[in-house]
Amino acid sequence: MFGLFRKNKLVKIRSLNETTKHGVAATSLKELLKKGSKLLQVPLVGSHICLYEDGTELSEDYFRSLPDNAELVLLAMGERWSGFVCDISRLLDTDRNSDLLIDAAKGLLSDERSPKRRKLLGELLLHLKDSSETENREDDEDWFQGIDVRFKTKSAYMKYNCESRIRGYMKEVDSYAQTIQKPKLKAEYKKTAESLVMQLKSDKYNGCYFNRTEKELNRLCTKDGWFSCQGAFDQDECISLHSINPYGNRESRILFSTWNLDHRNLCPRIEKKRTVIPALVEALQNRKSSNINLDYFYKLLFTRENLKLVHIVCHKKSAHDLLCDKRNVYKWGKRKGL
């Protein structure tokens, strides 16, 4: 009797596979199921309705307690909804609908005034506009803007990018010679530096680290070009889970230049400017360059054994306050007073 006078409750309802929400008025869950099934073309038999927010399935009593404009999801028999995290999962799998998502994000961004929401939408657009599957210049001309025409592929440029960083480290080694006052010591240091250059040339300046076409053991990225931050020099991993794919778009390529190849050692961690180079000079005080364990210093300065890729936030510029391993400085024997 009293059910005849129940007030219509207005809700917003959608199906599992659509994001468009429809306003529907109903006095009961049964009526809402009938209207929703017809509107969204979902079979009525076995259908059920859940809260969009957390996936709670509605009963008649629960329906009556809902506030107006509650967001609901109509599900067919066998379908499940775990809450809005389902939409997040769908968003992460953007291969099929990336163009639609890009258009939708652009539309939202054009009307958005909140700085925080604009930032989030902007970052979403950055990751959606991914062309990492392309490799050649003619297939992604935007990615190559500002890059010398001699680079025909993304991998070739990224290889050069890594080589340039390693060359920069070698320049630091060379320039340190100017701080050495003793002529004999400076001469031995320069000989050592020349040997390091020869080794670098042989290894092609380890440009393979940024080249996604290299074998997995030789590169720091996935085959698709994704790099993950390896954490600060005093951490085993990145607690913020930073990642980037400079192969994806031009902006990501530019942002990747702010990531650092930070010096560390497996245990303990070692920094080049304050520890490695001075230790090399000290080792040459009373020995010739031919006595130096060149391979040890080469690995500390230029290889992934003592280099870790880190997001700029994880790059700590404070002194590491750790020493080289005295046992590995020379090719043989022990060094007195070292």
From TrEMBL:
UniProt cross-references to InterPro entries, sorted A to Z: CIDE-N_dom, DFF40, DFF40_C, His-Me_finger_sf
Query: What residue stretches are annotated with the CIDE-N domain?
Result: 7-83
Keyword Membrane appears in the UniProt entry: no
Q: Which processes are annotated in GO (biological process)?
A: apoptotic DNA fragmentation
Where does this one sit in the cell? Answer: Cytoplasm; Nucleus
Where would one find the signal peptide in this protein?
none
Which terms in the Gene Ontology molecular function aspect does this entry carry?
DNA endonuclease activity; hydrolase activity
Q: Which UniProt keywords apply?
A: Apoptosis, Cytoplasm, Hydrolase, Nuclease, Nucleus
Any one GO CC term of this protein is:
nucleus
Gene3D superfamilies assigned to the protein according to its UniProt record, in alphabetical order: 3.10.20.10, 6.10.140.170
User: Subunit composition?
Assistant: Heterodimer of DFFA and DFFB. Interacts with H1-1.
Q: What does this protein do?
A: Nuclease that induces DNA fragmentation and chromatin condensation during apoptosis. Degrades naked DNA and induces apoptotic morphology.
What is the protein name given in its UniProt record?
DNA fragmentation factor subunit beta
Q: Which organism is it from?
A: Oncorhynchus tshawytscha
